[in-house]
Design brief:
There is one protein chain. The protein is an alpha/beta fold and 377 residues long. The chain folds into 2 domains: 212 residues, 3-Layer(aba) Sandwich (Rossmann fold), CATH 3.40.50.150; 131 residues, no CATH class. It contains 14 helices and 13 strands. Strands 1-13-9-12-8-5-2-3-4 form a 9-stranded mixed sheet, sandwiched between helices. The chain has a two-stranded antiparallel sheet with strand order 6-7. Strand 2, helix 2 and strand 3 form a beta-alpha-beta unit. Helix 6 runs antiparallel to helix 7. It is globular. The N and C termini lie close together (8 Å). 45% of the residues are buried. Bound molecules: S-adenosylmethionine. S-adenosylmethionine binds next to helix 2.
Amino acid sequence: MALRQAGCLGPLRRRVSGVIKYLGSKRRLVPALGRLFEASGAATALDLFTGTTRVAQELKRRGGVVWACDSARYSEVLGACYVAADAATIDEAELSEALGLLNRLPGRHGYFTETFCVKSRYFQPFNGRRVDAVRSRIADDFSGSWLEPLLLTSLLEAADRVDSTTGVQMAYLKSWAPRSYNPLELRAPALIPGTGYSLRADAAAAAASAGSVDFAYLDPPYNQHSYFGNYHIWETLVAWDRPPVYGVACKRSDCRDPANRSRFNSKPRFRDALAEIVRLVDAGILVLSYNDESWTTLEEITELCAKRGAVRVLTFDSKRYVGAQIGIHNPAGKLVGRVSHLRNHEYLVISGEQKDVMRAAAGVTDAGDVCCEVVQP
Ligand SMILES: C[S@@+](CC[C@H](N)C(=O)[O-])C[C@H]1O[C@@H](n2cnc3c(N)ncnc32)[C@H](O)[C@@H]1O
Protein backbone atom coordinates (compact mmCIF):
# COMPACT_ATOMS: atom_id res chain seq x y z
CA MET A 1 0.00 0.00 0.00
CA ALA A 2 1.30 3.43 -0.84
CA LEU A 3 0.28 6.43 1.24
CA ARG A 4 0.02 9.90 -0.23
CA GLN A 5 -0.61 13.04 1.81
CA ALA A 6 -2.55 15.93 0.40
CA GLY A 7 -4.12 19.10 1.81
CA CYS A 8 -6.78 18.58 4.52
CA LEU A 9 -10.47 18.81 3.66
CA GLY A 10 -11.33 22.46 3.23
CA PRO A 11 -14.72 23.97 4.06
CA LEU A 12 -16.96 22.40 1.41
CA ARG A 13 -19.93 24.65 1.81
CA ARG A 14 -22.01 24.04 -1.27
CA ARG A 15 -25.67 24.42 -0.34
CA VAL A 16 -27.92 21.42 -0.78
CA SER A 17 -31.68 21.52 -0.53
CA GLY A 18 -33.34 21.34 2.89
CA VAL A 19 -32.20 18.20 4.63
CA ILE A 20 -33.21 16.81 8.00
CA LYS A 21 -30.69 16.35 10.80
CA TYR A 22 -29.45 12.78 10.44
CA LEU A 23 -26.88 10.66 12.20
CA GLY A 24 -24.23 9.56 9.72
CA SER A 25 -25.45 11.92 7.04
CA LYS A 26 -22.71 12.57 4.52
CA ARG A 27 -23.09 16.33 4.30
CA ARG A 28 -19.34 16.97 4.22
CA LEU A 29 -18.69 14.27 1.64
CA VAL A 30 -21.37 15.28 -0.84
CA PRO A 31 -19.15 17.50 -3.03
CA ALA A 32 -16.40 14.86 -3.09
CA LEU A 33 -18.89 12.14 -4.03
CA GLY A 34 -20.29 14.37 -6.76
CA ARG A 35 -16.81 14.88 -8.18
CA LEU A 36 -16.09 11.16 -7.99
CA PHE A 37 -19.26 10.42 -9.89
CA GLU A 38 -18.62 13.02 -12.55
CA ALA A 39 -14.95 12.13 -13.03
CA SER A 40 -15.89 8.45 -13.41
CA GLY A 41 -17.99 9.33 -16.45
CA ALA A 42 -20.94 7.40 -14.99
CA ALA A 43 -24.47 7.98 -16.22
CA THR A 44 -26.45 5.75 -13.84
CA ALA A 45 -26.13 5.50 -10.06
CA LEU A 46 -27.46 3.56 -7.12
CA ASP A 47 -27.44 5.04 -3.59
CA LEU A 48 -28.30 1.96 -1.57
CA PHE A 49 -28.54 3.34 1.99
CA THR A 50 -29.75 6.73 0.95
CA GLY A 51 -31.07 8.11 4.30
CA THR A 52 -31.61 11.82 3.75
CA THR A 53 -31.01 11.25 -0.01
CA ARG A 54 -28.46 14.06 -0.05
CA VAL A 55 -25.89 11.97 -1.95
CA ALA A 56 -28.51 10.76 -4.44
CA GLN A 57 -29.58 14.38 -4.90
CA GLU A 58 -26.04 15.40 -5.75
CA LEU A 59 -25.66 12.59 -8.28
CA LYS A 60 -28.93 13.60 -9.91
CA ARG A 61 -27.84 17.24 -9.90
CA ARG A 62 -24.73 16.15 -11.80
CA GLY A 63 -26.84 14.56 -14.50
CA GLY A 64 -27.10 10.96 -13.25
CA VAL A 65 -30.15 8.75 -13.53
CA VAL A 66 -30.36 7.75 -9.87
CA TRP A 67 -31.98 5.00 -7.83
CA ALA A 68 -32.30 5.92 -4.12
CA CYS A 69 -33.01 3.03 -1.75
CA ASP A 70 -33.41 2.70 2.00
CA SER A 71 -35.48 0.63 4.43
CA ALA A 72 -36.91 3.73 6.14
CA ARG A 73 -40.34 5.08 5.24
CA TYR A 74 -39.30 8.71 5.58
CA SER A 75 -36.33 8.09 3.32
CA GLU A 76 -38.60 6.74 0.60
CA VAL A 77 -40.68 9.91 0.86
CA LEU A 78 -37.59 12.14 0.67
CA GLY A 79 -36.45 10.13 -2.34
CA ALA A 80 -39.82 10.45 -4.05
CA CYS A 81 -39.54 14.20 -3.59
CA TYR A 82 -35.89 14.95 -4.36
CA VAL A 83 -34.85 12.02 -6.55
CA ALA A 84 -37.98 10.82 -8.37
CA ALA A 85 -39.85 14.10 -8.88
CA ASP A 86 -38.58 16.05 -11.87
CA ALA A 87 -38.42 19.80 -11.21
CA ALA A 88 -38.81 20.40 -14.93
CA THR A 89 -42.26 18.83 -15.13
CA ILE A 90 -44.04 19.49 -11.84
CA ASP A 91 -46.79 22.05 -11.53
CA GLU A 92 -45.25 24.62 -9.19
CA ALA A 93 -48.45 26.63 -8.88
CA GLU A 94 -50.35 23.58 -7.66
CA LEU A 95 -47.61 22.80 -5.14
CA SER A 96 -47.55 26.37 -3.90
CA GLU A 97 -51.34 26.43 -3.56
CA ALA A 98 -51.32 23.20 -1.53
CA LEU A 99 -48.56 24.49 0.76
CA GLY A 100 -50.46 27.75 1.26
CA LEU A 101 -53.58 25.83 2.22
CA LEU A 102 -51.67 23.67 4.72
CA ASN A 103 -49.82 26.64 6.21
CA ARG A 104 -53.14 28.38 6.92
CA LEU A 105 -54.70 25.45 8.81
CA PRO A 106 -55.39 26.06 12.49
CA GLY A 107 -53.75 23.57 14.85
CA ARG A 108 -55.67 20.70 16.43
CA HIS A 109 -54.75 18.41 19.31
CA GLY A 110 -54.30 14.84 18.08
CA TYR A 111 -52.07 11.76 18.37
CA PHE A 112 -48.90 13.65 17.43
CA THR A 113 -49.39 16.42 20.00
CA GLU A 114 -50.40 14.01 22.73
CA THR A 115 -47.48 11.64 22.11
CA PHE A 116 -44.62 13.94 21.18
CA CYS A 117 -45.53 17.17 23.00
CA VAL A 118 -47.41 16.05 26.14
CA LYS A 119 -46.19 12.52 26.98
CA SER A 120 -42.74 13.59 25.75
CA ARG A 121 -41.25 16.95 24.80
CA TYR A 122 -39.87 16.71 21.27
CA PHE A 123 -41.93 19.67 20.02
CA GLN A 124 -43.77 22.55 21.62
CA PRO A 125 -47.50 21.77 21.79
CA PHE A 126 -48.46 24.72 19.57
CA ASN A 127 -46.30 23.21 16.82
CA GLY A 128 -47.49 19.66 17.55
CA ARG A 129 -51.07 20.79 16.96
CA ARG A 130 -50.03 22.24 13.59
CA VAL A 131 -48.36 18.94 12.66
CA ASP A 132 -51.57 17.07 13.56
CA ALA A 133 -53.68 19.39 11.45
CA VAL A 134 -51.35 19.39 8.43
CA ARG A 135 -50.64 15.65 8.45
CA SER A 136 -54.34 14.78 8.72
CA ARG A 137 -55.15 17.06 5.81
CA ILE A 138 -52.42 15.51 3.65
CA ALA A 139 -53.93 12.09 4.41
CA ASP A 140 -57.46 13.28 3.62
CA ASP A 141 -56.84 15.35 0.50
CA PHE A 142 -53.53 14.34 -1.10
CA SER A 143 -53.04 10.64 -0.41
CA GLY A 144 -51.80 8.86 -3.56
CA SER A 145 -51.34 12.10 -5.51
CA TRP A 146 -48.03 13.32 -6.99
CA LEU A 147 -48.11 16.07 -4.38
CA GLU A 148 -48.16 13.72 -1.39
CA PRO A 149 -44.38 13.04 -1.08
CA LEU A 150 -43.59 16.70 -1.71
CA LEU A 151 -45.97 17.85 1.01
CA LEU A 152 -44.77 15.17 3.44
CA THR A 153 -41.16 16.20 2.79
CA SER A 154 -42.08 19.80 3.43
CA LEU A 155 -43.78 18.80 6.69
CA LEU A 156 -40.85 16.59 7.81
CA GLU A 157 -38.40 19.39 7.20
CA ALA A 158 -40.63 21.96 8.87
CA ALA A 159 -40.95 19.74 11.96
CA ASP A 160 -37.19 19.07 11.97
CA ARG A 161 -36.53 22.82 12.02
CA VAL A 162 -38.53 23.26 15.26
CA ASP A 163 -37.68 20.08 17.19
CA SER A 164 -36.03 19.97 20.58
CA THR A 165 -33.45 17.21 20.17
CA THR A 166 -29.76 16.87 19.40
CA GLY A 167 -30.65 15.31 16.06
CA VAL A 168 -31.69 11.84 17.17
CA GLN A 169 -35.05 10.80 18.63
CA MET A 170 -33.76 8.55 21.42
CA ALA A 171 -34.33 11.49 23.75
CA TYR A 172 -35.37 15.14 23.82
CA LEU A 173 -33.65 18.06 25.48
CA LYS A 174 -34.37 18.80 29.12
CA SER A 175 -34.97 22.48 28.35
CA TRP A 176 -36.65 23.55 25.13
CA ALA A 177 -34.24 24.19 22.26
CA PRO A 178 -34.41 27.85 21.14
CA ARG A 179 -35.55 26.78 17.65
CA SER A 180 -38.57 24.96 19.12
CA TYR A 181 -40.19 28.37 19.84
CA ASN A 182 -40.32 29.15 16.12
CA PRO A 183 -43.64 28.51 14.41
CA LEU A 184 -43.85 25.49 12.10
CA GLU A 185 -43.70 26.71 8.52
CA LEU A 186 -43.96 24.58 5.39
CA ARG A 187 -41.63 25.59 2.57
CA ALA A 188 -41.43 24.36 -1.00
CA PRO A 189 -38.74 21.68 -1.32
CA ALA A 190 -35.89 22.63 -3.69
CA LEU A 191 -36.64 20.08 -6.38
CA ILE A 192 -34.05 18.92 -8.89
CA PRO A 193 -34.57 18.45 -12.62
CA GLY A 194 -33.78 15.01 -13.99
CA THR A 195 -34.67 11.36 -13.71
CA GLY A 196 -34.61 9.18 -10.63
CA TYR A 197 -36.39 6.51 -8.66
CA SER A 198 -37.13 6.05 -4.96
CA LEU A 199 -37.42 2.66 -3.39
CA ARG A 200 -38.15 1.38 0.10
CA ALA A 201 -36.46 -2.01 0.37
CA ASP A 202 -33.89 -4.02 2.20
CA ALA A 203 -30.51 -3.31 0.64
CA ALA A 204 -29.86 -6.95 -0.27
CA ALA A 205 -33.17 -7.28 -2.11
CA ALA A 206 -32.63 -3.97 -3.88
CA ALA A 207 -29.06 -4.86 -4.86
CA ALA A 208 -30.20 -8.20 -6.26
CA SER A 209 -32.91 -6.64 -8.40
CA ALA A 210 -31.30 -3.34 -9.39
CA GLY A 211 -29.50 -4.62 -12.47
CA SER A 212 -26.29 -3.06 -13.69
CA VAL A 213 -25.33 0.55 -12.89
CA ASP A 214 -22.22 2.59 -13.62
CA PHE A 215 -21.75 3.85 -10.08
CA ALA A 216 -22.95 2.58 -6.70
CA TYR A 217 -22.59 4.25 -3.33
CA LEU A 218 -22.97 2.21 -0.13
CA ASP A 219 -23.29 3.92 3.24
CA PRO A 220 -24.59 1.25 5.63
CA PRO A 221 -24.85 1.63 9.41
CA TYR A 222 -21.66 0.38 11.03
CA ASN A 223 -22.74 0.03 14.65
CA GLN A 224 -25.64 -0.82 16.97
CA HIS A 225 -27.56 2.45 16.55
CA SER A 226 -30.84 1.60 14.86
CA TYR A 227 -32.19 4.19 12.45
CA PHE A 228 -35.70 2.81 12.92
CA GLY A 229 -35.50 3.67 16.64
CA ASN A 230 -33.47 6.84 16.25
CA TYR A 231 -35.96 8.36 13.82
CA HIS A 232 -39.18 6.77 15.07
CA ILE A 233 -41.07 10.06 14.92
CA TRP A 234 -40.36 10.46 11.20
CA GLU A 235 -41.49 6.85 10.64
CA THR A 236 -44.73 7.61 12.45
CA LEU A 237 -45.26 10.93 10.73
CA VAL A 238 -45.02 9.25 7.34
CA ALA A 239 -46.90 6.03 8.23
CA TRP A 240 -49.55 8.04 10.15
CA ASP A 241 -50.60 4.84 11.85
CA ARG A 242 -50.86 6.09 15.46
CA PRO A 243 -48.89 3.18 16.95
CA PRO A 244 -48.69 2.35 20.65
CA VAL A 245 -45.49 3.71 22.17
CA TYR A 246 -43.25 2.80 25.10
CA GLY A 247 -40.67 4.38 27.40
CA VAL A 248 -39.66 7.96 28.05
CA ALA A 249 -38.70 8.40 24.39
CA CYS A 250 -42.21 7.28 23.27
CA LYS A 251 -40.82 4.97 20.61
CA ARG A 252 -43.16 3.01 18.36
CA SER A 253 -43.85 -0.40 19.86
CA ASP A 254 -42.60 -2.06 16.66
CA CYS A 255 -39.11 -0.67 17.38
CA ARG A 256 -38.88 -3.84 19.51
CA ASP A 257 -39.84 -6.07 16.62
CA PRO A 258 -36.77 -8.00 15.41
CA ALA A 259 -38.10 -7.60 11.84
CA ASN A 260 -37.33 -3.90 12.13
CA ARG A 261 -33.78 -4.48 13.30
CA SER A 262 -31.27 -4.13 10.50
CA ARG A 263 -28.60 -6.80 10.08
CA PHE A 264 -26.19 -3.90 9.86
CA ASN A 265 -26.95 -3.06 13.50
CA SER A 266 -25.93 -6.51 14.69
CA LYS A 267 -22.26 -7.11 15.44
CA PRO A 268 -22.34 -10.85 14.64
CA ARG A 269 -24.30 -10.35 11.39
CA PHE A 270 -22.80 -7.14 10.10
CA ARG A 271 -19.78 -8.53 8.21
CA ASP A 272 -21.73 -11.12 6.25
CA ALA A 273 -24.44 -8.60 5.46
CA LEU A 274 -21.91 -6.18 4.01
CA ALA A 275 -20.06 -8.87 2.08
CA GLU A 276 -23.36 -9.99 0.56
CA ILE A 277 -24.18 -6.48 -0.64
CA VAL A 278 -20.73 -5.92 -2.13
CA ARG A 279 -21.11 -9.24 -3.97
CA LEU A 280 -24.64 -8.48 -5.19
CA VAL A 281 -24.18 -4.93 -6.42
CA ASP A 282 -23.45 -4.88 -10.13
CA ALA A 283 -21.60 -1.61 -10.65
CA GLY A 284 -18.58 -0.39 -12.62
CA ILE A 285 -17.43 1.77 -9.73
CA LEU A 286 -18.40 0.96 -6.17
CA VAL A 287 -17.83 3.53 -3.44
CA LEU A 288 -18.16 2.37 0.14
CA SER A 289 -18.34 4.80 3.05
CA TYR A 290 -16.63 3.81 6.23
CA ASN A 291 -15.62 5.62 9.41
CA ASP A 292 -13.35 4.75 12.29
CA GLU A 293 -16.24 4.32 14.78
CA SER A 294 -17.22 1.08 13.16
CA TRP A 295 -17.21 -2.57 14.20
CA THR A 296 -14.97 -3.42 11.31
CA THR A 297 -11.50 -2.25 10.32
CA LEU A 298 -10.43 -0.38 7.24
CA GLU A 299 -8.23 -3.35 6.32
CA GLU A 300 -11.25 -5.66 6.32
CA ILE A 301 -13.18 -3.24 4.14
CA THR A 302 -10.39 -2.83 1.61
CA GLU A 303 -9.92 -6.59 1.50
CA LEU A 304 -13.60 -7.05 0.79
CA CYS A 305 -13.56 -4.41 -1.96
CA ALA A 306 -10.34 -5.78 -3.47
CA LYS A 307 -12.39 -8.77 -4.70
CA ARG A 308 -13.81 -6.32 -7.25
CA GLY A 309 -10.42 -5.19 -8.58
CA ALA A 310 -8.33 -2.13 -7.75
CA VAL A 311 -9.00 -0.17 -4.55
CA ARG A 312 -8.31 3.40 -3.51
CA VAL A 313 -9.11 4.87 -0.14
CA LEU A 314 -9.69 8.58 0.35
CA THR A 315 -9.63 9.88 3.92
CA PHE A 316 -11.48 12.91 5.25
CA ASP A 317 -11.20 14.54 8.64
CA SER A 318 -14.66 15.07 10.15
CA LYS A 319 -16.45 16.52 13.19
CA ARG A 320 -18.51 13.97 15.18
CA TYR A 321 -22.27 14.34 15.52
CA VAL A 322 -23.63 16.95 17.92
CA GLY A 323 -24.52 14.43 20.67
CA ALA A 324 -20.85 13.55 20.94
CA GLN A 325 -19.97 17.22 21.16
CA ILE A 326 -22.22 17.95 24.14
CA GLY A 327 -21.60 14.78 26.15
CA ILE A 328 -23.56 11.76 27.36
CA HIS A 329 -26.57 12.50 29.61
CA ASN A 330 -29.04 10.32 31.49
CA PRO A 331 -32.83 10.86 31.00
CA ALA A 332 -32.79 13.41 33.85
CA GLY A 333 -30.29 15.49 31.87
CA LYS A 334 -27.32 14.76 34.14
CA LEU A 335 -23.94 14.37 32.45
CA VAL A 336 -23.02 10.71 32.96
CA GLY A 337 -20.26 10.03 30.48
CA ARG A 338 -17.17 11.58 29.10
CA VAL A 339 -16.71 12.21 25.40
CA SER A 340 -13.55 10.49 24.26
CA HIS A 341 -12.96 12.48 21.07
CA LEU A 342 -14.63 15.15 18.99
CA ARG A 343 -13.29 14.34 15.53
CA ASN A 344 -13.06 11.18 13.48
CA HIS A 345 -12.08 10.08 10.02
CA GLU A 346 -14.43 9.34 7.16
CA TYR A 347 -13.21 7.12 4.35
CA LEU A 348 -14.39 6.55 0.81
CA VAL A 349 -13.25 3.17 -0.45
CA ILE A 350 -13.39 3.13 -4.24
CA SER A 351 -13.19 -0.15 -6.14
CA GLY A 352 -13.49 -1.37 -9.70
CA GLU A 353 -11.25 -1.65 -12.73
CA GLN A 354 -7.92 0.04 -12.15
CA LYS A 355 -8.26 2.71 -14.85
CA ASP A 356 -11.82 3.60 -13.76
CA VAL A 357 -10.85 3.81 -10.10
CA MET A 358 -7.86 6.03 -10.86
CA ARG A 359 -9.95 8.31 -13.05
CA ALA A 360 -12.76 8.65 -10.48
CA ALA A 361 -10.39 9.26 -7.56
CA ALA A 362 -8.49 11.89 -9.52
CA GLY A 363 -11.70 13.94 -9.65
CA VAL A 364 -11.44 14.32 -5.86
CA THR A 365 -7.71 14.39 -5.24
CA ASP A 366 -7.16 16.98 -7.95
CA ALA A 367 -9.70 19.21 -6.20
CA GLY A 368 -7.68 18.96 -2.94
CA ASP A 369 -10.60 17.59 -0.88
CA VAL A 370 -8.82 14.72 0.81
CA CYS A 371 -6.70 14.40 3.89
CA CYS A 372 -4.74 11.46 2.59
CA GLU A 373 -5.03 8.78 0.01
CA VAL A 374 -4.16 5.09 0.13
CA VAL A 375 -3.61 3.26 -3.15
CA GLN A 376 -3.91 -0.51 -3.25
CA PRO A 377 -3.18 -1.93 -6.71
C1 LIG B 1 -25.40 5.96 7.53
S1 LIG B 1 -27.07 6.08 7.11
C2 LIG B 1 -27.01 6.70 5.47
C3 LIG B 1 -26.87 8.19 5.42
C4 LIG B 1 -26.96 8.76 4.02
N1 LIG B 1 -25.83 8.41 3.20
C5 LIG B 1 -27.08 10.27 4.11
O1 LIG B 1 -26.13 10.98 3.75
O2 LIG B 1 -28.13 10.74 4.55
C6 LIG B 1 -27.54 4.41 6.90
C7 LIG B 1 -28.93 4.21 6.30
O3 LIG B 1 -29.10 2.80 6.10
C8 LIG B 1 -30.47 2.50 6.26
N2 LIG B 1 -30.56 1.03 6.46
C9 LIG B 1 -30.23 0.31 7.56
N3 LIG B 1 -30.37 -1.00 7.33
C10 LIG B 1 -30.79 -1.14 6.04
C11 LIG B 1 -31.11 -2.25 5.21
N4 LIG B 1 -31.00 -3.50 5.67
N5 LIG B 1 -31.52 -2.02 3.95
C12 LIG B 1 -31.65 -0.74 3.49
N6 LIG B 1 -31.36 0.35 4.23
C13 LIG B 1 -30.93 0.17 5.49
C14 LIG B 1 -30.92 3.37 7.42
O4 LIG B 1 -32.31 3.57 7.40
C15 LIG B 1 -30.09 4.64 7.17
O5 LIG B 1 -30.85 5.59 6.47
